[in-house]
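Supplementary Note 3. Input sequence used for the single-chain structure prediction.
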Amino acid sequence: MDLTIIIVNWNTVELMQQCLESIYNANINLVYEIIMVDNGSTDDSVTTISSKFPGVRIISNERNLGFAKANNQALADSKGKFL
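The predicted structure, written as discrete structure tokens, is reproduced below.
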């Protein structure tokens, strides 16, 4: 695995969809994974992203743990050489 892309989300399902579409439409010549950490969103972010982007690994927190902790959660679960 070359690259891990970590995205922290909190109630921004529309922006998250746009971000993921942009990544998938890019011509990336690397083996990569995408990890989304959801910080307790109430806008159906987890359901929407998991159904529309099944290749995205989702870490779902029950409450907002903050940006740094969310990144650290994904870091601990990442497989990429670069983050």
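The first strand starts at residue 3 and ends at 9. The radius of gyration is 12 Å.
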